[in-house]
Design a protein that fits this description.
The protein is built from 13 helices and 22 strands. The protein is α/β, with parallel strands linked by helices and 476 residues long. The chain folds into 3 domains: 8-151 and 274-335, 3-Layer(bba) Sandwich (FAD/NAD(P)-binding domain), CATH 3.50.50.60; 154-270, FAD/NAD(P)-binding domain; 355-473, 2-Layer Sandwich (Enolase-like, domain 1), CATH 3.30.390.30. Strands 1, 2, 3, 4, 5, 6 and 17 form a 7-stranded mixed β-sheet that branches. Strands 8-15-9-10-11 form a 5-stranded parallel β-sheet, with helices on one face. A hairpin with a 2-residue loop joins strand 4 and strand 5 (126-131). Helix 1 packs parallel to helix 7.
Length: 476
């Protein structure tokens, strides 16, 4: 087909069927738009097929295995358990297949046209789509780029997806590594470390920084939990290269004390990501990118071509599905003429570790650096009656307020239920809540929720379940 001779007319074309793309598609049809969604691989994108869902199935299984160790205390007796990773892989594949079909059904029910193929811009209003021998051209009024990103290993490390693994292949292996070396300091590295530790791996975690990236109080408790679980942490170290032999991996690390070689059976690298833009022709139409190639967008998710939008991991910012979903809905609403924007200021960060970590807003150090007069307090879950009932006493809840105007600045939770509880912090920050807004409501009892109220009350030395001695030790 010669470009320009014939083109199929479309209102809105979306390139990429991940969480951002299909959420944008469905929201756009809800608002009366005619939508065509182009996906070259599987619906659901990296999140469903390679990232979020596979990794959370792994962490869920690991949590179940770890929880079994507490059964005897509850009078539930057994001769033991055996973990079968092949059955877990089958469960993972079945779950992913069901979720993909769910996405497809939702798109069909909302009259989203789905086209299989690789899309690329021919001009500012035309897209070419290839699928094997088939080639079609589409003219559009608006387009949304939702092509995501791809993990890339640091220099000196080559991912072979067998012994040296990245975030896409770590959940594909059909064995529990005997000794797993992990290089990275993000939530994925921590999830993998704790998951395989629970499944029986000896785990060594190597991080480039001198500490983790959470609030200092979370970091202290995290280090205690890692030590309790016999996960070795090597800080301030860079992995310069990795070598694979028949049955092991050897890495060389450099730190302040010199160089060291460490051997394990497998190496997991929590890589940085590069945007999937090379093959879609954005340079042809002049869409602006930042230095590392991610597409620049404004709060409406518009690119430098005003009728073309970009969302999710292909744009600057954290690679999180929650960002992609919000941006997808924003772009669809703006295209439909509805005022909308994406503000990532109160983006929650979560790690499905054991126990989970969830954070939103400013850390205490960041709040101080920004000039706030800070009032903060911690409620350790050892003081929670419900945490004791559940046998989930590791962790804490920390709140950070501005001492002068009493507005909430940040909430950080490390403990059972953290991922669900952090929504209280998100809502409170969005609504500019003060400390009194936490003290006035009634909290369900018994629950971990009560810990939020007690953390706020601890700022005023009013927490009921913190003894004076504990308040002093926590520097409240």
């Amino acid at each position: 087909m010669v470009v320009g001779e014939l083109a199929h007319e479309r209102d809105l074309i979306i390139i990429g069927g991940g969480p951002g793309g299909y959420n944008a598609a469905i929201r756009a049809t809800q608002l009366g738009q005619s939508v065509t969604l182009i996906e070259k691989a599987e619906l659901g994108g990296e999140c469903l097929n390679k990232g979020c869902i596979p990794s959370k199935i792994l962490t869920h299984a690991a949590d179940k295995v770890a929880s079994f160790r507490d059964f005897d205390d509850l009078g539930i007796e057994s001769d033991g358990i055996r973990f079968n990773i092949e059955k877990l892989q089958a469960y993972k594949d079945k779950t992913m297949s069901q979720l993909r079909e769910g996405v497809r059904s939702l798109c069909k029910a909302n009259k989203v046209e789905i086209i299989k193929g690789s899309a690329f811009f021919l001009s500012e209003d035309r897209i070419g789509v290839e699928n094997g021998e088939q080639y079609e051209v589409y003219r559009f009024k608006h387009a949304i780029i939702a092509t995501g990103s791809t993990p890339k290993a640091p220099e000196g490390i080559e991912i072979d997806h067998k012994r040296i693994l990245d975030s896409w292949s770590i959940t594909e292996i059909k064995m529990v590594p005997e000794k797993l070396l992990i290089y990275g300091n993000d939530y994925i590295a921590l999830e993998i470390a704790m998951a395989y530790n629970a499944l029986g791996s000896q785990v060594v975690l190597i991080i480039e920084e001198d500490d983790f990236k959470f609030d200092s109080s979370i970091n202290r408790e995290l280090k205690r939990v890692l030590k309790k679980n016999q996960i070795q942490v090597i800080k301030g170290s860079i992995v310069t290269n990795a070598y694979v032999s028949e049955e092991e991996v050897t890495i060389h690390i450099v730190n302040k004390t010199g160089e060291e070689a460490i051997t394990g059976t497998h190496l997991f690298v929590s890589s940085f990501y590069i945007p999937n833009t090379d093959s879609i022709g954005i340079n042809r139409i002049g869409i602006k990118t930042c230095e590392n190639g991610f597409i620049l967008v404004n709060e409406e998710c518009r690119t430098s071509c005003k009728h073309i939008f970009a969302i999710g991991d292909v744009t600057e910012g954290p690679n999180l599905a929650v960002k992609a979903i919000k941006q997808g809905k924003t772009a669809a609403e703006v295209i439909a003429g509805i005022p909308s924007e994406t503000d990532l200021r109160f983006l929650p960060i979560v790690a499905h570790t054991r126990p989970p970590i969830a954070s939103v807003g400013l850390t205490e150090a960041k709040a101080i650096n920004l000039g706030h007069s800070v009032a903060s307090a911690i409620f350790p879950l050892t003081s929670s009656g419900y945490a004791s009932v559940l046998g989930k006493k590791d962790g804490l809840i920390k709140v950070i307020f501005d001492k002068d105007d009493h507005f909430l600045l940040g909430m950080h939770i490390f403990g059972f239920g953290a991922v669900e509880l952090i929504s209280s912090g998100v809502f409170s920050l969005e609504m500019a809540a003060r400390d009194e807004d936490f003290s006035f409501p009634l909290y369900p009892h018994p629950s971990i929720n009560e810990g939020i109220a007690e953390a706020v009350e601890a700022i005023k030395k009013q927490a009921i379940h913190l003894s004076p001695a504990m308040k002093k030790s926590l520097k409240i």
